[in-house]
Amino acid sequence: MTQTRALRTKRKKSRNDLSGYFYIAPFFIVFGVFGAFPIVYTAWIALHDWNPIGTQTWVGLDNFTFLVSDPRFWNAVRNTFSIWFISTVPQLLFALILAAALNNALLKWATGYRMSILVPQVTSVLAVGIIFTQIFGREFGLANYLLESFGMERLDWQSGVLSSHVAISTMVMWRWTGYNALIYLAAMQSIPRDLYEVADIDGANTFRKFFHITIPQIRPAIIFTVIISTIGGMQVFAEPLIFGGNSNFTGGSDRQFQTLTMLLYEQGFGRFKFGYASAIAWALFVIILIVSIVNYMITRRISRE
Amino acid sequence: MTRSTKGRFWIVLLVLSMIVAACSGAAEEAGGDNGGTSATTEAPDAGGGDGNGDGTTDTTQAPEATTTTAQCAGEDNVLEVWGFGATGLEPGMDEWGAANGYCIETKIIGYDDHHQGLLTALAAGEVPDVAVVEVGYSSLFKGSADAGFFTNLGDIGANDLEAEFVDWRWAQGVSNTGVVFGIPTDVGGMGLAYRADLFEAAGLPSDPAGVAALWSTWEEFLDVGEEFFGAGDPHFLDDAGVLYQVIATQAEQRYYADDGSLIYDTNPNVRFAFDIATDAAERGLSANFAAFSPEWNTAMDTGEYAVQLAPSWMMGYIQSVAPNTEGLWSVTTLPVPGGNWGGSQLTIPAASDQVDAAWEMIQFVLSSDNQFAVFQNNGNFPTIEALYDTPELLGTTNPFFSDAPLGEIYAESVKNLSPIYEGIDERPILDAFGRAIDRVENGELTGEEAWEEALAEIQLDVG
Question: Are B143 and B82 in contact (CB under 8 A)?
């Protein structure tokens, strides 16, 4: 009697365990099909000279050795990091300031402002790209008009390395600042009020409160945005592509704003070197991994202080 | 609102914003696949080009468009056609469809997008029934034909047609193992279109014979341009890259020797074409408009430059993007005869389930009568040799081009062409030279530096 009851509860327990796996299965199936499998399969392709139509020959690590010696790859790495840095650092600082301002209890129409900072986010990246490309146009662009009215020389934004990076970063910043600000704001809203009250009693001013209460308290949100912006920044594609004109995957005549994803696309779908493109994809994966870890360590140290 | 519900509100908003971000990410990719949108509403690219000339914003000008004609009753009677610009064959296709109870669905996207997408589509098996392949990409698709991705038209009757077509153009649709995968639609024989009014204003003769007598070499062509137009407005040329592309085809060989080995770095004519183009750029004769860019179209309409190297399909292009210039253009022969720019083949992917109908349609639209009609309406020069001596073709003129003897000029330009061996990497090599010339036009490099850069770039890509 007791034995069967024990058996029954055990069976029931194991059935419960099993149903738990069923609940989480959809995610893992989808991730396996669209996440894990392509990653592994890409590694397999990268070891081949892989023509989508025609032959696939095993070449071992040749694609990777060529990658390391390919100046176009290092150029794309430089461009990607440069655009990422120029866009992310000001973007996150600005988002932090924006969030602090929107978190102010005295602010009127707070919800209206909070909603409106999301507007750039819902705009199609294509529309953003086209408009900004016109703003930074050589002949009739608004940016050059402003430069001239301040007595400065007009720029051929596309042909310069730094100028093209600044122009592309502006698009990225415009789209993502509000999104990051919203995340910071959500985190700031959950900071307990009493911390500030205690600080008020101790006579701390606004800046002290901001740096010693707000920043440490929203540390997880900062880490989250830094990592998300890094992953996004490493993969920036649409903005430089549109900036260079239709179907121009070289990113300018000197590849001056060709990012890693553009090089990947050029080699894969423009030159049909799927093996080499897969090697680039893996290099990108490793780069994102390393940068994310470094990011995480730096951010953690900064916000702990 | 209590504090906790307020917090929940923000969490919901945050989640919503993430969903929005994810959705717009998907939209991004969809947009990217199409290579961006284009501001123009017409599909003016008349068949040939590629205009690679310029690295930055070249090629694809033709906007995306999907048109469906007639009522489509079901899947059985739909023919899907993919192309990269107006071939001028569309009315003929519709006519055939209407007579035979088929609907023609035409999908037009950018030049490089189309060909690269077609190759991916072949690999994936999701193919159209008829696909346009331009000569710039023919050599790449020869390999696909050998691998069985295209219907061998030789098996279903194309061999009977071969004798009617210009032999070297026919050969561009035949793979290395003899698979006939494409039937040539048009030849990109060359002429020189010029703005007669701007020539007169500059003090030059404006009739075709008088203009042809101004120069007999490319060097003289540039000298005259510099003397009468200088570096000012209007410019003499549209784009140095176009000049390179045309001169580079004026020889027996281009990037490959007849045995298939690479000679792009040692072929004296490639170097000559590059030097002429960079010389024009350094002397400021080019207005530096990327061919097929919206700016180029506008400049054509507003008269920012005086001379356009023009394959015959360019007649249709100019008329569609520069309607305000009617009667101001004229056409004469090139300073140095020869060269071919553009021209396409119609192919039937092997995975199409409408091979017979597609083949019927191709035979109809590439018949002698229809090709002549296309030449009259759109400028694309026919590939059927017997037409070249007919008085109707030789007598073709167009008031848009000041009634210049278009028929004679283009027939003459095509008769003396000989085939050039084309290898698999034609397009990337042309692209690299084009970008190097572009940097000279931007004043970043000298011609000599640009040559070295182009060779280094090609070396990396082609090896």
Answer: no
Quick check: A129 and B149 CB within 8 A?
Answer: no
Could you tell me the residue ranges of all domains in chain A? 67-304
CA A134 to CA B63: how far, in whole Å? Answer: 18
Mutation pick from A53, A102, A264 vs chain B, by most beta carbons of B within 10 Å, is A53
Structural domain total, chain B: 2
> Which CATH entry fits the domain spanning A67-304: 3.40.50.1360, 1.10.3720.10, 3.40.50.720, 3.40.50.2300?
1.10.3720.10
CB contact under 8 A, A241 and B32: yes
What chain B residue is nearest to A232 in terms of C-alpha separation? B25
Rounded Cα distance, B207 and B202, in Å: 14
Low-confidence ranges of chain B (pLDDT < 70): 1-75, 463
Q: Which of B350, B365, B399 is the last residue of a domain?
A: B399
pLDDT at B27: 35
Residues belonging to chain B = 463
Distance CA A99, CA A117 (A): 10
Q: What is the pLDDT of residue A3?
A: 62
pLDDT at B119: 92
Residue B99 burial (10 A CB sphere; 0-12, 13-18, 19+): exposed
Spell out the alpha helix ranges (H) of A37-107. 37-46, 62-69, 71-102
CA-based nearest residue in chain A for residue B435:
A253
pLDDT of residue B63: 41
- The whole-number pLDDT of residue B60 equals 36
State the CB neighbour count (10 A cutoff) for residue B365.
24
Per-residue confidence (pLDDT) for residue B324, from 0 to 100: 94
* C-alpha torsion A55→B431→B290→B243, nearest 10: -130
- Whole-number pLDDT of residue A304: 66
Give A208's Cβ-side CA count (13 Å radius).
Answer: 9
Q: Which of B2, B5, B13 to mutate to test the interface with A (most CBs of A within 10 A)?
A: B13
CB neighbours of A21 closer than 8 A, spacing ≥ 6?
none
Could you give the maximum distance between any two Cα atoms of chain A, in Å? 96
pLDDT of residue B7: 52
Q: Which of B37, B120, B460 sits opposite A126 (nearest CB)?
A: B37
Is the domain of B205 the same as that of B176? no
Question: Is B270:B255 a contact under the CB 8 Å cutoff?
Answer: yes
What pLDDT sits at residue B52?
A: 37
Question: CB distance A126–B24 less than 8 Å?
Answer: no
The range of the structural domain enclosing residue B142 comes to 65-187+342-399
- Asked if A48 contacts A58 with a C-beta cutoff of 8 angstroms, the reply is yes
Which CATH number characterizes residue B285's domain? Answer: 3.40.190.10
Q: CA B9, CA B183: separation in Å to the nearest integer?
A: 64
Which residues of chain A are modeled with pLDDT < 70?
A: 1-15, 246-247, 302-305
The reply to whether B346 falls in a domain is yes
Q: What is the DSSP letter of B395?
A: T
Q: Are residues B284 and B302 in the same domain?
A: yes
> How many Å separate Cα B59 from the centre of its chain?
8
In the block, residue with structure tokens 């008085």? B391
